Structure prediction request, 719 residues.
Amino acid sequence: MPIKFKKSDKTFILTTKNTAYAFSVECDRYLVHQYYGKKTAAFKRYEPYVVSFSPYLKEAGNSWSPDIFPQEYSFFGSGDFRTAALKLKGADGTGVTDFVYRSYRYINGTHEIEGLPQARGDEDTKTLEIKMADDLTGCELLLYYTVFYEEDVITRHILIKNKGKSAVKIEKCMSMTLDLPSCDYDLITLWGGHVDERNYQRAPLHHGVQSICSRRGASSHQYNPFMAVCDQKANEEKGDVYGFNLVYSGSFLDEAEVDQTERTRVQLGLGEENFGYTLLPGEEFTSPEAVMTYSSKGLGQMSRNFHNFTRNRIMPKKALKPHPVVLNTWEACYFNIDEEKLLRFAEESAKVGFDMLVMDDGWFGARNHDRAGLGDWYVNTNKFKNGLAPFVKGVKQNGISFGIWIEPEMINPDSDLYRAHPEWVLAVPGREPSLSREQLVLDMSNSEVVDYLIDSFTKTFEGVPVDYFKWDANRHLCDIYSPTLPADRQDEVPFRFMKGVYRLLKWFEEHFPDTVIETCAGGGGRYDLGMMQYGFQIWTSDNTWPYARVWMQRSSLLAYPAATMSCHVSNPGEDMKSLDYRYKVAVGGMLGYELNILNMTAPIKEEMARQVKEYKSFEHLVRLGDYYCIACPFLSDYSSYYYTNEDRSEILFSLIEKRSAKKGVTKTLKIKEAKKGVTYVDLLSGSKYTGEELRAGLVLPLAGEKDTASLMYFVEEKQ
Ligand code: GLA
Prediction:
């Protein structure tokens, strides 16, 4: 059983393949965190002690201060002065609660989070439900722990039921608290901006609260919800690492607080700044799901745990099949598209061997530039004279499939939809809402708006054989107000907005069961587990400059599998070396192309055809294999990694130089997972290597040729 309750010391023990997690009931009321780490039967239990200025209840005694003991979930105002997970305001207006442990039960499978994405369970999945209650507000709090045994992951979320007689307001809501017994850790987070997503940041924890958050209504380019806390000496292969994430795509808060006792509190959730929620008597609220993993084998194992978990439990099952190699029209044409041109694109794409033509922005309404048309989801008949269906059939006559771009949540003021329904945008009455990329945001918290979009897309795509949607979102939320809610409930809008987005995504999934969705938010502005549940991959960044992609892809892989990472070769001009470099960078994820195929020379097209064929011979390793980072481009002059299958009979590895690489410097690429006593053949060059040679490392000189130097090997065990 992965979940046990030991009656003798009232301890819950959750186990995964390699980890254990424990907490106990103390003083018949408190939930005290005891252990999270390597699987062991003998962990050191917390011993209570007295600390002055830390309050306690008479019945529990002065050594049991909520300010000091490690909590399973933390509350505002009743003696714990550290950052709280829950602030709930009842009729007395104080925000003080005193949730006390009541009972537990086991659930087979998961506990459903209504309206939000969450990890998928199976017949072996088990969930622990813990019930706590606060007498004065009459609220019940349920803590959920789902154990994903094979993936070494535990997920958590909470549910609050208002069983009292008055309304309560949730003012801060975190999905989890984890109080770790030390503070000698580094904190790893990913920060960025548009065209600059997911930079790697690692710094020692210090006293006080360190946090990252999004206040943007999207998980954002600026901070990714992933966070790790690790030994200060932890590297790719060694050291204790705790990894965290959230299955949610809206505003969030991740915090780590080092307290007076030199322990660390980690919390992830919705936070308080951009969130509030009123529960009337009888109503309930469920938080998004938080994800935790522990690795005793450094960052690499943490990443692989997250990769397995995301592939097995988050991504749609159809995302595990080979992804189409697409030709996308955006960087080739921008808004300048029409039927005739794209049919020629389709014809040329088929000749090269691309699987799909993706028609990006510009096909609908008056969308001739980014100042008009968003919201008007009907085909522009100046560009597509016969409508969508005959055009798409024309594309498909070439034997390739078809994808199309949409941006459902957004609207240009210059659109028929805005003229008809100005009240459907997020805007505060009496104030002019700010534009971003010339657009406003639709009020997705209003079910009428979502219903309208469903109706509109139903009509537009009726009888159009679309295989793929690229779902974009090109601005963040401000001036947030919805006429559907009273003044004192406006802080619910961002959360309800995300629920509206998920409802529409779910509708797409159900209404177009054979299509796949690539999500995008001005590149990787919603590169999160929430989106990954619906999308089969995510557009990594609007920055397709391969040099920048080298580090962006590396940091994305820290938390997310390559199967989610959409990577395009953009215009190489006539430069064959540049094409080669771009390709070798892009094959680290799901390969696609984004260039004007009509302008490409015959040798470039031939080379692309060769690349697509070659990629298909090893893409299963990228999509499903285990990822090992040899050299991180944030720390070295080059990037090097490999993907390998379960029995290590196939390995794809590469070395990609950065601009700063110096000619002649040699680097040793150690493929430590290669098997001893076997010979591997490089299917790309024909060279042979023993497993021992690969493990000891290939010694390779750097070429120092700026953005063109890269090496790639695809070795297979010789039978
Ligand atoms: C965003 C996307 C791009 C492209 C444009 C179209 O920037 O990230 O890939 O689709 O929108 O407007």
